[in-house]
Amino acid sequence: MNDTLVGVVVGHGAVAEALVGAAEEISGIRGALIAVSNTGAGREALEERVVAAVAGRRAVVFVDLPSGSCLFAALHGLPARDHVRVVTGVNLVMLLDFLFHREEEIAAAARRAAEAGARSISER
Amino acid sequence: MPIVLCRVDDRLVHGQVVVGWGRPLDLQRIVLVDDEVRASPWEQELYRMAAPPGMTVEFASAAEAAPQLAAWEAGKERVLVLVGTIALASDLERRAPGRLRRLNLGGIHAGPGRRERLRYLYLSDEELTMLRGLARVGLQISAQDLPTSRPVPLSDLE
Fold first, then answer.
1. Fewer beta carbons within 10 angstroms: which end of chain A, N or C?
2. In whole angstroms, what is the distance from residue B101 CA to residue B13 CA?
3. What is the pLDDT of chain A when averaged over all its residues?
């Protein structure tokens, strides 16, 4: 089993696809992030999409909103917490940090990505 | 204040409900009628997280909700009654005849036997039959995912 983490980005509409595309464009790292949209999916179908994207691998799942259908799909569809961590409020800074720290232990990678994303928010 | 909306939405408590409808309707309480969620405290916690401050999310089984419909209708709070399936809406009507007056079809996604009627609404023939039955006993039924969308009457979903 490959120990490198994968990132699964789950979002409303085209949010996940756009963020993944932008992160790949900036980093030059392709294939490490998988986009999942909730478009056209009920609860069960969205859960199935998330579970299929993780595919049993060690994964950090990034969700756009801190609640709602996308978070529910991640937490309900992936109850085993040993190989999956869920981070909410995904943004581009968060994904870029993750892309360059995919060799780290999963909880540490998820935590540092979340902190990087949070630090990027400011008001001037 | 009466029940301001009774909605069928298979994503249950999510953004369209709490933001899209919650703000313009000034909702104070969402009652999620779902036997499975009623029995699962951790799922309830997830759905509570979706609601903004000032909006309560309450959970009830169909059997618990039916006798309370009259009280919610007569209460002071602005209530949205939310179910995940047309079968459950039909069950509520059977348990408490005449208590539901309008039914909003907000989001039912693709599934076995279902055909696309609108971008956000897939219905099987069986579900359409249930809806016709509800219309016959007096419910006004329309599909509308968001308040800014055009309501589509049941007759246009055939």
1. C
2. 21
3. 94
Of B10, B49, B51, the CB nearest to A42: B10
Q: Given pLDDT bands bounded at 50, 70 and 90, which one contains residue B50?
A: confident
What CATH code would you report for A6-119?
A: 3.40.50.510
Crossing angle for the helix pair B125-136 and B86-95, to the nearest 10 degrees: 30
CB-nearest partner of B46 from A38, A40, A72: A72
Q: What is the pTM of this model?
A: 0.86
The DSSP string of B35-68 is HHHHT-HHHHHHHHHTSPTT-EEEEE-HHHHGGG
How far is Cα B140 from Cα B127, in angstroms, rounded to an integer?
A: 16
DSSP B14: S
| C-alpha–C-alpha distance, residues B79 and A116, integer Å | 39
- Locate the chain A residue with the closest alpha carbon to B48: A67
**Of A120, A111, A7, A115, which Cα lies nearest the Cα of A59?**
A7
Instruction: Return mean pLDDT, chain B.
Output: 95
Q: Which helix (H) or strand (E) holds A12?
A: none
Q: In this predicted model, which residue has the larger pLDDT, B133 or B52?
A: B133
B 101-120 → A contacts, CB under 8 A: 107-111
Domains observed in chain B: 3-157 (3.40.35.10)
The CA distance from B122 to the nearest CA of chain A, in Å, is 10
Q: pLDDT by residue (tens digit) across B58-106?
A: 999 999 999 999 999 999 999 999 999 999 999 999 999 999 999 999 9
Q: Which residue of A has its CA nearest to B47?
A: A68
Which residue type occupies B4? V
Residues in a beta bridge with A37: A11
